[in-house]
Model the fold of this input.
Amino acid sequence: MCREAAPGVEFQKTGPGEFSGETTQVVKNGVACIDLHATPETGAATIIAASDGLVNDTVEVLITDRMTVDSFDAYQNQATVESAWSIRSGTQLQFRLESEHVDTDPYALRVSYGVGSGYAPYAALVKKLHDRDFSAAKSIRFWLKPDELQTGILW
Done:
């Protein structure tokens, strides 16, 4: 512990990825941490930890192993979306490209569905992967935004 050190550490980043939460973190038991979440870009991210009274520390994180299932930005129209995605069974379901309610990419896939009496309690929307190998993947991340009705659908 250094008595001249500030009680917080300021994190800065260059390159791909984004921090979650505030960039200034409070030191607890001599440690300050921040999470770096991958973005669609790959490459080297440099993270600098700085605190008054201490020497800056730098770490480089190489983001190379991202595999994107679908970012929806390669589709020209609804027909090209329908050639890659299909409805298998279940409730009434429709899907289309959406550019208004998106996270970080220019487009998302909007799914409209029927719920309640008279509708099946399930649906299947399938992405054709064309023999892509995801066996090395450790996780999958979805960005979901609930509908305006706040029906409490579980994903």
